[in-house]
Design a protein that fits this description.
- This protein is α+β, with helices and mostly antiparallel strands.
- It has two domains: 3-111, Arc Repressor Mutant, subunit A, CATH 1.10.10; 122-203, Alpha-Beta Plaits (2-Layer Sandwich).
- 51% of the residues lie in helices and 20% in strands.
- It is built from nine helices and seven strands, in the order αααααββαβαββαββα.
- It has helices spanning 3-16, 21-31, 37-48, 53-58, 62-77, 96-111, 138-151, 169-177, 198-203; strands spanning 81-86, 89-94, 122-131, 154-157, 160-165, 184-189, 195-197.
- It has a five-stranded antiparallel sheet with strand order 4-5-3-6-7.
- Helix 1 packs across helix 6.
């Protein structure tokens, strides 16, 4: 994940949630820097409800922890976030400069769409893709249609596609970066005829 994407996700998270240093790092370590707000919040709630979460901190990898702290230090040094104290608790808030940086990164990302071509690989299972993307994201919607068609899926009705193609991990990662995951359902039809949600299986 690019440094700019990590900074974007960090600023977004601090803007929406109130985390201390250890909780913020733990949430990102468990959920991943590309995770959605809900997943990061879920991981933090799990830690808060787990009596052993302090012991879990001891097991955190030193290098990953140091990189995280270096990023926090850099954001504070650049006056993008600030640390505040409420009683015996410390937490981060985003500054005006940080919000300006966040908007800049969001607008920059909106203009950058990934290539619409991914490596194709045949699957022995049928995959169904459905989506309902808002009109405000029509550029991303058109990109998605091109990607799905290039992968070899066939449209069976509007916004419903089917094919025996494995979903590339890179494609799913790009859906996450483009914040399209909440608007898309990808199902895998097993040999018994049951449906499994591909995105939830990979990003739970």
């Amino acid at each position: 994940m690019r440094k700019g994407d990590i900074i974007l996700k960090m600023l977004e998270t601090i803007e929406h949630f109130t985390f201390g240093m250890a909780e913020l790092f733990g949430a990102f370590l468990d959920a991943g820097y590309g995770a959605s707000y809900n997943k990061i919040q879920h991981q933090t709630s799990k830690r808060r409800n787990n009596n052993d979460w302090l012991n879990r901190e001891i097991e955190l990898k030193r290098k990953a922890k140091q990189r995280h702290y270096n990023l926090i230090y850099s954001l504070k040094k650049d006056n993008l976030i600030e640390e505040k104290i409420n009683g015996d608790k410390k937490f981060f808030t985003i500054t005006k400069k940080g919000r300006d940086k966040l908007l800049l990164l969001i607008n920059k990302n909106k203009k950058m769409l990934p290539a619409a071509s991914y490596q194709k690989e045949k699957s022995d299972k049928f995959i169904i893709i459905t989506f309902d993307i808002p009109e405000t994201e029509k550029t991303k919607r058109e990109w998605l249609r091109v990607v799905i068609k290039n992968l070899g899926f066939k449209m069976i009705q509007k916004s419903v596609w089917i094919g025996q193609i494995k979903i590339p991990k890179e494609f799913l990662d790009d859906l996450l970066k483009l914040r399209l995951v909440d608007f898309i359902e990808i199902f895998e039809i097993s040999k018994t005829g049951s449906l499994k949600q591909v995105i939830k299986k990979l990003y739970k």
